[in-house]
Amino acid sequence: MSRNAESTAFRSALEVIRAVEPRVADAIGAELTDQRESLKLIASENYASPATLLAMGNWFSDKYAEGTVGRRFYAGCQNVDTVEALAAEHARELFGAAHAYVQPHSGIDANLVAFWAVLADRVESPALKKAQVRHVNDLTEADWFALRRELGNQRMLGMSLDAGGHLTHGFRPNISGKMFDQRSYGTDPATGLIDYDRVAEAAREFKPLILVGGYSAYPRKVNFRILREIADSVGATCMVDMAHFAGLVAGKVFTGDFDPVPHAHIVTTTTHKSLRGPRGGMVLCQPELADQVDRGCPMVLGGPLPHVMAAKAVALAEARRPDFAVYAQRIVDNAQALAEGLLRRGAKLVTGGTDNHLVLIDVSGYGLTGRQAEQALLDSGIVTNRNSVPQDPNGAWYTSGIRVGTPALTTRGLGTAEMDQTAELMHTVLTQTTAGANADGTPSKAKYTLDPALADKVARQATDLLAPHPLYPAIDLT
Ligand code: PLP
């Protein structure tokens, strides 16, 4: 394929959009410019390939296809069947999974599908059986009460939010926290690492129906063999949410005890983070859960998004190529180089480093909150996000941490030398920013001072760092 084809495809698409609503075409163009110019260190973001992006922008978006491959509630789904089956096949092959369900629209949806599959599989509930075979309109008020009573108050044990767990693992602001009686395991205060003996102790005490592994902000490998053993010892279902590190599993950087797929009963993921696919979710599971997982639509999801399933098929095919394994290893090499660069310059890192794609900096060492550090870095062209650190005194809004990740910059082709330069730029900003005060003289958690000339200088240096690694080099919209 000629490089010109990508340019022509996107330029033509914008021309077509511009003829209807030029402001949307302009915004799409401006987004490309912004993404090209910023040093993106958001651990959950990436840059999908042009093929993946193009697979999403077409008439598959117009099709309803409730049901599963070959068993649809709508006519004319043969082409949707093709892409859904392809995406599932690539997912099974890539991850060595017995079953793959590629319909979830996002990570939260994938988790809800998994939770309901486990509830339906594990909880003896005549009311649920009735609900699954009858149309909802046929269920009486008493049926609904019975359903709630039978399914309610089931227990989930997951990683605590401030240790790096995710909202969807049973926390109050999310529906999972309302569905489940949740308890969490944290990390060892001295090392920042998961203490598996403590997890086992919590599981013995709490006896969860579901033991959840996986995280959004834990910079280390997790031993899923041990997690499964703990789950088995208390009769829990072992579920792993690999949304963040799916690309490292796909690229065979996480193997053996660190690959969740052979160990967990059920694995969920997003497809858009380190896996570098379209925005979406996916569930992989062992055969005994497959039927329940496939009921995701209509139990949790509306109609699947065939255009996104097409893009998932493309991205998963890309992830099966040998160069994806090289990419995945580089993500980790880059994260480690960034961590070393920061440590050498005096940063305090949660767990003292990383063995995955992310680094969690405790910015209290610079006298800053996460909020102040995030904004000061943003002023300087460095895009990160604030994040709690374990036992965070500043709570989830201001936080004491900054989470940085390397999947996106690695896609652009930056390497370990550039990671050291990135550490230098971050060090300059963080050491030159000072916390501000409120009008009454009390310390502010949001205000800060950073010399704008210095911020501009760092932003220019960040742009220089990116210049040899253009984003989507084949695409020229001018
Ligand atoms: N699970 C984990 C571990 C995540 O980090 C995230 C998103 O950040 C999600 C689930 C939710 O994904 P989505 O935003 O696609 O719903």
Question: What does this entry show, briefly?
Answer:
This protein is an alpha/beta fold and 478 residues long. The chain is 47% helix and 14% strand.
Total helical segments: 20
Q: Into how many domains do the coordinates divide?
A: 2
- Structural class comes to alpha/beta
What gap, in angstroms, lies between the N and C termini?
A: 21 Å
- Sheet bearing the most strands, described? 7 strands, mixed
Kindly provide the name of the CATH class of the largest domain. Answer: Alpha Beta
Number of strands: 16
The gross shape turns out to be: globular
CATH-defined architecture of the largest domain: 3-Layer(aba) Sandwich
User: Which compounds are bound in this model?
Assistant: pyridoxal-5'-phosphate
What is CATH's topology name of the largest domain? Aspartate Aminotransferase, domain 2
Kindly report the average pLDDT value: 95
| Strand-residue proportion | 5-15%
Structure report:
The structure is a single chain. This protein has 478 residues and is of the alpha/beta class. It contains 20 helices and 16 strands. The protein has helices spanning 3-18, 22-37, 50-56, 78-95, 107-122, 126-133, 141-151, 175-179, 196-206, 224-233, 246-250, 287-293, 296-299, 306-319, 322-344, 370-379, 395-398, 407-412, 416-432, 452-466; strands at residues 39-40, 67-68, 71-72, 99-101, 154-159, 180-185, 210-214, 237-241, 266-270, 281-285, 358-362, 382-383, 385-387, 401-405, 434-437, 443-449. Strands 4-10-9-8-7-5-6 form a seven-stranded mixed beta sheet, sandwiched between helices. Helix 1 packs across helix 2 (22-37) and helix 4 runs parallel beside helix 14 (306-319). The mean pLDDT is 95. The structure holds pyridoxal-5'-phosphate. Pyridoxal-5'-phosphate is lined by residues 44, 106-108, 166, 168, 214, 216, 241, 243-244, 270, 281. Pyridoxal-5'-phosphate binds next to helix 5.
